[in-house]
From TrEMBL:
Organism name: Oricola cellulosilytica
GO molecular function: histone deacetylase activity; hydrolase activity
Protein name: Histone deacetylase
Keyword field: Hydrolase
A Gene Ontology BP annotation from the UniProt entry: epigenetic regulation of gene expression
InterPro entries: HDAC_classIV, HDACs, His_deacetylse_dom, His_deacetylse_dom_sf, Ureohydrolase_dom_sf
Keyword Cytoplasm among UniProt keywords: no
One Pfam entry name: Hist_deacetyl
Keyword Hydrolase assigned: yes
Family membership noted in the UniProt record: Belongs to the histone deacetylase family.
All copies of domain Histone deacetylase, residue ranges: 19-290
Coiled coil region boundaries: none
Amino acid sequence: MRLPIVHNPAYDAKFSPDHRFPMSKYALLAEVIMREGLAGPGDFHVPMPAPAAWIKLAHDAAYVDQVYDYRVPPAIEKIIGFPVTERTSIRAQCATAGTIMAARLALEYGIACNTAGGSHHAGHMHGAGFCTFNDVAVAAKLMLADGEIGTALVLDLDVHQGDGTAAILSDERRVFTASVHSQKNYPTRKVASDYDLGLPDGMEDAAYLKTLALVLEQLRDRVSPDIVFYNAGVDVHAEDRLGRLALTDRGIEQRERMVISHFRQRGIPVCGVIGGGYSKDVEALALRHVILHRVASEFVF
């Protein structure tokens, strides 16, 4: 069978090409997935917008209502990095539902990926850093509440620390949060995860992969989850505009294979989300994001 891949055209909120956030990468990623034969046009699992009640499990109810009604205060929109319009609201709702759908598919098939998600800067009270809702935190809380899982691991390898995820899940002992990130990068003020490792600027493939192997072994001794939410941000790439690390495409491919094989060999389902990636060359960016889906396809049985 093929890798279950979740995608909704609404993931692309149609920003101007000169916006700092490369919104068109979501549509291009879907195109690349089909071009590589990882999915056909009718193969994507398509999420509907998430009910507000789901989002309120992780976020302040008043903020959620503001997003659904397109009336987020300008000061909060500035922190998020773009206006909350009908398009960006629906995008956030669908992307969150997409991670929930991908997690449920992962429980069924062992692995599944969203073509969005990883919005890890959104905190309980409001969004931040191009993140409106924290899809992984919502998914974890919903699936715990519904009894679909008893424990979870959030493994965040985006170049930026997962501060919002750490904050939202700080009192949830059934979810272990782990972030490996660029220490000197955004956010300036980190929020303690259950496991944090800040990396020095300019770290290249070999040192990164050696470090990651040690991290995975340390986590093995600390947590045996029912599911892993894997944030596979490609802003660790040497050419990323907002990263400070120096991985190559090959290094990212080796990272994905190392992470996914580690958990699948242990029989732990993996839900992959794409996380961050920032480049004016959006085609090149989509080709970096597709590495997650390409490698994940190797682990579908």
